[in-house]
Amino acid sequence: MKGQGKMVLNSRLKWVGLVGLVLSAFSLFIHFLLARFTEDGVIEYQSSITVFSWRPIFESANFPRTSPMYRRLWGPIRHLESLHPDANPRGNYAVTDPSSQTNGFIFVRIRGGFHEIRNSICDVVAVSRLLNATLVIPEIQSTTSSKGISSDFKSFAYLYNEDQFMAALAKDVNIVKTLPKNLKWARRKKEIPSFKVPYSASPYYYLNQVLSVLKKHSVVELVVPEGGCLQAILPPELEHNEELQRLRCRVAFHALQFRQEVQELATKVLFRLRAPGRPFIAYDPGMTRDALAHHGCAELFQDVHTELIQHKRSWMIKRGIVEGKLRVNSAKQRLSGSCPLMPEEVGILLRAHGYSWDTIIYVSGGEVFGGQRTLIPLHAMFENVVDRTSLTTPWELNRLYGHEANIITSSPRTPPPIEKEMKHEAWKTSGPRPRPLPPPPARPKSYNIEGWWGWVAESDNEPESTVMELRTNAHKLLWEAIDYVIGLEADVFISGFDRDGNGRPNFASLVMGHRLYQSAALKTYRPDRKEVSKLLEEIHDHLYHANHTWLKSVRKHMRKRLLDGLIEASTKSKPLSFLSHPVPECSCLRYDSNETSFHASSPSPQSQVQAALRVVHRCPAWMDSDLILRSKDKDNEEDLDEDDSTSSGLFFRRSGENHESGGGDSNNKEEAQLDDLEELEGGER
Ligand SMILES: *[C@@H]1O[C@H](CO)[C@@H](O)[C@H](O)[C@H]1NC(C)=O
Ligand SMILES: *[C@@H]1O[C@H](CO)[C@@H](O)[C@H](O)[C@H]1NC(C)=O
Ligand SMILES: *[C@@H]1O[C@H](CO)[C@@H](O)[C@H](O)[C@H]1NC(C)=O
């Protein structure tokens, strides 16, 4: 016994030594990193700083911020500059002490991914207010500790800041962290009434069916499986319906803050993105397996990817999530605008619109179906394409996840049984002698590709998720939280798709809704996928050598869609998810008094937009005090667009050749000259 104890001690000492060594190596590394950062703070020509694994490369050191070109690509959308966030209660909506009158407790269990969780939380808060109930902090099912996440967190707190949530809504709804003891006990014994609520339940469903049960039992459980539980557009005859909408805005845009560690890392990533001192584009591909399956886009991929999508689609058809046939003509779907724009197509749009090859693009998305392969063309067109992984260290991400128990992954997923070929007996007894050697014993079949899709060729049934996969799903929520912050703050946002696997507004839609609320004038492109596919078909066989006419039509389209896409969202997205288009309820107008006289002759485009978005509420007076000085020149963006006649078929050349020859300097210069010309011409007027 004693000897054993000594040995344990010995090996422990060794471990301590090893850990010490690793730690000191690590601190050395950090020192180097810090030194780099502080010394190379200034960016030079052909930029020299390295931000983690990203080494920004720029064409020139100076980045003109005053050119018309800059304004066209990065400047605010003039027509929306007077739109401001205002989610405060208006008029006679009572901000009473909600704790004084409660009809009972509402306990909520939420299923789904990032955007579904967000939608659901806003809905349940609104429902609690509607019923004068006390809300227990919702349980997010994909982040409970049975899913392999760290036990440091209690579901909601894995993603969001509980205290901030409760404090921000203190005037609206009474929120508690847990059920009182006796009710908890009843819940465990499954004695409390439970409702599985549909996606867009009417408020009258709650008032007529849930309320009486709530009053009787003083507690109900709501199970929210579909990413929402209250109509997006509330019936106009419902009392205070606009106030409930504004409450949803207060929840989504103010009360729901990410957990501090997540927020901090997101801020760090943002800081690293901004380090080169240039604006950036955030791009959300929106290519999830569910969405592709739902919209029948399998054939846009190949091989195993097609199989995987089809597999999901047949699963969805079986469950009635999708109606229609299993086999769909994906090319037709794409032409009708029902499939996501591929990264290559988005890249072409951006290049055609005028973004140069050294533009910084942050690719978001916890899941990009098809993997890095689909992003290759984008990387070829743009030098500085980054994502979460290139701007964080694995160490930083691990810290985010908390202490997770080790999962022994030694047992690879057992493959479905394969029929053994029983030929040995026959071989022994038949045929002439001498014989060849018997066949080698069949090797046990194991999936050569580590991971999730090995089963597809072997089996019709998708295997159960392993704990590891469940854990990755939870991590995905954190990644998407970071992407959400980046997408919100980006100078330009563009998404390849705005629908999820249920045909409802997706992650990107929520980001766009939040941008519309918080900073409406920031550029958010909403290309019309049908139009875009038509445009791309035109240059189908010479994608990278478009002529001037074509470029012009792309630019016109992109500019037009800045506003048209917004108006379209108000009719197509808002009825499905209020958060994807929280206007006009949560916005107000701030106009300087001289605005109207300026466009006296005709109705200003500004007022047209406002009419379309139906915003009439004037911002409260305190907002007027810090009226920003509008830029004096009232250049029309339209004029700017008509103007750049210099671009030609050369436009894409550089990117294509650069990656073959590795150099492409001469083209570099050519394009630089083109850009200069473009700017000059813009400036002359
Ligand atoms: C909730 O409280 C308000 C204010 O006290 C009251 O007007 C309303 O009728 C109550 N609603 C329900 C469903 O109890
Ligand atoms: C430009 O390209 C489009 C599409 O390839 C073609 O239809 C059009 O005729 C071309 N225009 C000129 C002026 O070359
Ligand atoms: C509006 O016009 C008046 C005079 O017509 C001027 O005094 C005032 O400064 C102008 N306000 C703004 C915000 O330009």
UniProtKB/TrEMBL annotation:
Its main location: membrane. GO terms for cellular component: cytoplasm; membrane. Coiled coil: none annotated. It comes from the Eukaryota. Residues 408-442, 634-685 are annotated as: Disordered. It holds the Pfam family O-FucT. GO terms for biological process: fucose metabolic process. The chain crosses the membrane at residues 12-34. This is O-fucosyltransferase family protein. Keywords: Carbohydrate metabolism, Fucose metabolism, Glycoprotein, Glycosyltransferase, Membrane, Signal-anchor, Transferase, Transmembrane, Transmembrane helix. Residues 636-645, 673-685 have a biased composition (Acidic residues). It is found in: Membrane. InterPro entries: FucosylTrfase_pln, GDP-Fuc_O-FucTrfase.
